[in-house]
Structure formats: structure tokens, C-alpha cells
Design the sequence.
């Protein structure tokens, strides 16, 4: 039987949001909402709409299956997918709603340096970072985490790093969840996952992972008061962005539980159209075990980004022959992209404890909400949107109106082009040369990989953030321009 | 080469169609496809050594998934690129097993030029089909 394209059911409900009604396909429990203006939604491939409609079939899902303006096709959920399920109503947890790179995320560091002070230093600084921060396939970190040491790291996250001399106690205050989630259960992590990731903490990885030196130009500051509160407080200020995740530990945990859920889901009467949506009720033995293991991976990712930030501090201190404190190297914030977290959200005037899956989406708590550092609470949670190495990135803030998306917003630009197409279109070495001529110094572990990550393979970051802002999912604070990039 | 990248399944990841004239050859080709996604050059590094490993699962489809996952495990845990040379597959009512003879190379950044890392073998559109004398698999890799 021919199944009509789900996209044909799309109807625009506001300037920045479209909806697929729950009646569009058998099995959808709630409508699907896709954020974006006409151009962004038109640029999304058919699979995005299929995948978000599939997400709407998850047991226990509340209100809507959502796709952010940077949405593009993935597996299970689209990248940019958000779903909140009620565990008390049989709500499920699905590894396909989180991704294999559990707690892939971004942290942003401020410095007291300005562009005139570093302009001639960028190539040397990037070269030093490339030498000191392991990146690419097969790169090993300086730490080997095994046995009880690994158990400790999996439960303490970034705090483990700080306690062992890799950072400052105040760093933890400026991480989502203070750099560690509760509920990590090392006993739920397989020996294979422990073994596979043992050498990888403190490494950047590959693909779209990066470490970037950027400048917040005065002309790019959209909200001076909030920027100042977040630590962007001088003209042409230098900042550093780190994008990485839980590395092979997280990849194996996701693989292990995907297989387990596929083998048990029928026992729970679950049969979803994509096997990558394999799931189990959160309140089941298997669901709880995955939640415990996933939380371990979330903590390992916080730890990973903390270790990388520590190396960045060391490199800057060596290069400028000043202490990290003298250089003002402080953490602005660390956000997660790929998680499922238990959060309290209001639906129809009542507060519910929901499991919010975000896959390629950022939590964006609004002003005054708990779990935002005291210093930022009046302004909303910092939201860091990582763009391509060519076009730049954004610092934004959470808004009260993001309640419509369970306080979720965009995480990056979002791809418009497959990796194969990008490699046909761009040449890594030419790209490096061209960017160098524009003052953006690139070091990479792979020129083919660099071509796949060309700016032209991504959506226009200004349009993506513009749509998120237009929809009320976040507010812009500052645009960040790349100066130098270490590409994994 | 009996594998090709499919462009219209996913924009963020890499989809492959792999085919061979026997089940064992399909596993060998799947290993070659994985290598070609990750590496720019096909040549083996000096010092490659022979190894044998076995994987079991409940069906041939689950077996191919576990087999490819095992190759990723060697890459990350031991820093080894394992390239299958031959594979014997046994399937019966109790499940499926593969015994693989392979060449293993230590990752050497002076020799190996990587394109991208593969994080996982997804279950999205994952399938193994046996039609006539052809075995075909569709695999989406998370990169």
C-alpha cells in the first residue's frame, strides 16, 4: 500500500512553526511541531517529517513531538528532536532519542583578551591547541580510566576532574546540572563499554567536534546587559568554544541498550516504525538500567569537556606566559545536546515530572528558573549554539516563552547537505587555504573530514537562530566569529 | 568493491548498501566498507598481523550488527584497525555465529589518513536480505 508523504499534512500555525496533526498517520499520539520559517522548513529533507511523526508515536509522549529549526534527518529521532514523556503514564526511554554520542555538548570559555592582543598569535595558538588536545580517530587522552576510578568518574562527572586538579571548583557552578547528574549507575555499564572508552577521556573526537577560538565583536552583541552578565564584557573579546561528548563509552552504552530494548520491547507491547526508536518504559528494569548507564555517560562527557578546557587553560597560560586567572579564562557555561533528563514541566496548569529527550537540542531554561547559576538567573540560562567554522556561532539566553518546547531550543546550524555531497562539493585543503585568507586558521586531523564540515554543508546560522528567536525559544545575546579552529 | 554509499537516507550520517555472493563474503565486505568510510587509503600499514575472532547472535541480521560493532570495539579499545579476510557463518535454529580471519593494524597517524570516526552501527533501516544468490545489507553508520 502506498503511504502518502507525511509532509503533505504539514500546516503552518505561526510564522515560525508548522504542525503535522496527530490524525496524519495511524499511531501518532500527539501532533508533531516543526519550528522554522518557510525557507528553513522547505530545506528539511523528507526524513525529518517521517522521523518526527514516528516520535509522536512514543508511549507516554505529552503535548507534541518537536523538531527545532536546525532539524535534519538522523535515525530514530531527527537531529533537533525533542520529546517529553510521562513515566507515570507508561512513558518510555529510547536511546534513539538521545543518540550514540550521549551528552555531546558545548562549553564556552571567556577570556580577558581582546582581538588586537591576539591577532598575530592565532596560528601559533591553534597549533599549540592541536598539539595538546588529542583529536581524530585513535587519539588517546593522558588519563586511563578503569575499575573503581572509572566508577568514581562516572558518578562524579566534571567534579571528578576538579577534585583531581583539572579545573577550579567554580567551573562546576557554570555547567548544566553542575557538571554531574544524579542517578548514574556504574553497575549498569557493560565491561565492553568500560573497556572501549578507557583511553578516550580528554579527547575531542572527530566529525563535527571542534575546539574554536572566537571573537565577540561589539557589533555582534545583541543584548549588552545579558552579555555582560554572562561575562562578555569588553569590545572584541576572545572566547573559546569546545564541542565534544562522552566518546566511545557513550557510543557503546547506547549500542548495548539499543540491542537490549529491541529484544524486550515486544514484551512491553511496544512496536515502533523505526528500530532506532527501540525503547522500554522508564519504570521497568531495562528502562531504569539504561537511565543509570546513560547518566554515567552524561557524567563522562562533562568530565571530558572539563579535561579539554583544562588543557586549553594550560596552552593559553604557556603561550601568553600568564596564569589562567590573569587571562580571565573562566567558564561561561556548558550545555548538553544529547540527553534524556527528568524535569518538572507545567502542562495545563499542573506540574508533571517528565523525561525530556533532547537529541541535537539544547535545554533553555528561562529567567528565574531553578538550576540556573545565581549570577545568570535573572537573565535565563546561557544557550550556546555552535555554528560551522566559517559562519560563526551564537550565545543566546533561555526565555519564559520556551515553555512551549519544554524549554528546548536549537543546538547548531543543522546540515543541509549529506557528507558525501559535501565531499564532492568541497576540498579540505582548499577550504583550509580559503579560510586562512579570511583570517580563520584551521588545523585538522582529517582534510576529508574538514570538507564534510564545510560551512556550505550547513544551514545559515543567522536564519536558524532567527527562527528560534522568532518562535520564542531563546533570545540572542552575542554573535561569535571564528578566528581559529581545531577540527577533530 | 561491492558496497556503495547511499545519499538519500541520512544527511548527518553515512548509509551503505553492501552486497556479496555468500553470507561470509557479506561480512568481509561489511568490514571493507567500514574501513573505506573511515580511511582515505586502502593500503595496510606495515606490521599488520593475523587474528581470528568469533561473534554470536540470535539471527544473521543481529550477527552482522554485532560483528561490525566488534570491529569498532577493537578500534577504540585496542587502537586496532581490523580488516576481515574471510568469514565463515553458521546459522541454525539456536542462532548464528561468525568466525572471522582478519588482518589487524595498530593505528599509526603517520600512515593512516582518517576521514571520519564511526561511533556506532545504527539500527535505522538496518537489514540483511538473501535473494537468489545475492546477499545484501543496508547499514547506517553514526559518524
Sequence:
Amino acid at each position: 500500500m502506498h503511504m502518502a508523504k507525511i509532509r503533505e499534512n504539514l500546516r503552518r500555525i505561526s510564522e515560525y512553526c508548522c504542525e503535522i496533526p496527530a490524525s496524519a498517520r495511524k499511531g501518532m499520539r500527539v501532533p508533531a511541531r516543526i519550528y522554522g520559517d518557510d525557507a528553513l522548513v522547505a530545506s528539511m529533507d523528507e526524513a525529518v517529517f517521517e522521523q518526527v511523526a514516528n516520535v509522536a508515536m512514543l508511549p507516554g509522549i505529552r503535548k507534541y513531538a518537536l523538531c527545532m529549526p536546525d532539524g535534519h534527518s538522523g535515525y530514530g529521532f531527527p537531529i533537533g528532536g525533542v520529546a517529553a514523556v510521562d513515566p507515570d503514564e507508561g512513558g518510555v526511554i529510547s536511546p534513539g532519542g538521545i543518540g550514540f554520542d550521549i551528552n555531546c555538548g558545548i562549553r564556552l570559555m571567556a577570556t580577558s583578551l581582546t582581538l588586537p592582543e591576539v591577532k598575530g598569535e592565532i596560528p601559533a595558538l591553534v597549533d599549540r591547541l592541536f598539539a595538546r588536545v588529542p583529536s581524530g580517530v585513535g587519539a588517546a587522552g593522558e588519563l586511563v580510566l578503569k575499575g573503581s576510578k572509572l566508577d568514581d568518574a562516572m558518578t562524579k562527572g566534571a567534579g571528578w576532574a576538579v577534585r583531581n586538579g583539572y579545573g577550579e571548583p567554580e567551573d562546576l557552578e557554570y555547567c548544566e546540572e553542575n557538571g554531574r547528574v544524579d542517578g548514574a549507575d556504574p553497575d549498569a555499564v557493560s565491561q565492553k563499554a568500560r573497556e572501549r572508552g578507557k583511553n578516550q577521556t580528554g579527547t575531542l573526537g572527530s566529525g563535527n567536534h571542534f575546539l574554536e577560538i572566537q571573537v565577540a565583536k561589539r557589533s555582534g552583541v545583541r543584548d549588552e546587559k545579558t552579555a555582560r552578565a554572562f561575562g562578555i564584557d569588553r569590545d572584541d573579546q576572545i572566547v573559546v568554544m569546545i564541542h565534544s561528548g562522552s566518546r566511545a563509552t557513550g557510543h557503546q552504552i547506547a549500542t548495548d541498550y539499543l540491542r537490549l530494548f529491541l529484544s524486550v520491547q515486544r514484551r512491553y507491547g511496544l512496536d515502533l516504525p523505526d528500530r532506532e526508536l527501540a525503547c522500554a518504559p522508564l519504570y521497568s528494569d531495562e528502562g531504569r538500567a539504561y537511565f543509570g548507564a546513560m547518566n554515567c555517560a552524561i557524567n563522562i562527557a562533562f568530565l571530558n569537556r572539563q579535561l579539554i578546557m583544562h588543557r586549553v587553560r594550560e596552552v593559553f597560560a604557556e603561550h601568553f606566559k600568564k596564569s589562567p586567572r590573569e587571562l580571565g579564562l573562566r567558564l561561561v557555561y556548558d550545555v548538553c545536546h544529547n540527553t534524556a533528563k527528568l524535569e518538572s514541566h507545567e502542562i495545563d496548569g499542573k506540574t508533571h515530572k517528565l523525561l525530556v529527550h533532547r537529541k541535537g537540542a539544547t535545554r533553555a531554561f528561562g529567567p528565574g528558573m531553578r538550576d540556573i547559576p545565581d549570577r545568570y538567573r535573572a537573565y535565563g540560562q546561557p544557550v550556546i549554539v555552535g555554528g560551522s567554522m566559517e559562519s560563526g556561532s551564537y550565545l543566546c539566553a533561555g526565555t519564559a516563552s520556551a515553555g512551549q518546547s519544554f524549554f528546548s531550543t536549537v543546538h547548531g546550524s543543522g546540515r543541509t547537505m549529506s557528507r558525501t555531497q559535501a565531499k564532492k562539493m568541497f576540498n579540505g585543503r582548499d577550504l583550509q587555504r580559503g579560510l586562512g585568507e579570511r583570517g580563520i586558521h584551521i588545523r585538522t586531523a582529517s582534510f576529508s573530514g574538514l570538507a564534510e564540515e564545510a560551512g556550505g554543508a550547513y544551514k545559515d546560522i543567522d536564519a536558524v537562530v532567527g527562527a528560534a528567536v522568532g518562535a520564542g525559544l531563546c533570545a540572542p545575546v552575542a554573535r561569535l566569529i571564528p578566528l581559529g579552529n581545531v577540527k577533530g | 568493491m561491492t558496497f556503495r554509499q547511499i545519499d538519500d537516507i541520512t544527511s548527518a550520517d553515512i548509509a551503505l548498501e553492501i552486497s556479496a555472493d555468500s553470507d561470509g563474503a557479506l561480512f568481509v565486505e561489511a568490514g571493507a566498507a567500514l574501513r573505506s568510510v573511515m580511511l582515505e587509503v586502502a593500503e595496510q600499514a606495515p606490521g599488520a598481523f593475523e587474528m581470528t575472532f568469533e561473534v554470536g547472535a540470535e539471527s544473521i541480521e543481529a550477527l552482522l550488527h554485532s560483528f561490525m560493532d566488534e570491529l569498532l570495539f577493537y578500534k577504540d579499545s585496542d587502537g586496532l584497525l581490523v580488516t576481515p579476510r574471510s568469514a565463515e557463518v553458521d546459522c541454525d535454529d539456536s542462532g548464528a555465529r561468525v568466525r572471522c580471519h582478519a588482518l589487524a593494524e595498530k593505528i599509526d597517524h603517520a600512515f593512516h589518513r582518517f576521514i571520519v570516526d564511526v561511533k556506532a552501527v545504527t539500527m535505522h533501516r538496518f537489514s540483511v536480505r538473501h535473494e537468489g544468490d545475492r546477499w545484501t545489507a543496508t547499514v547506517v553508520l553514526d559518524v
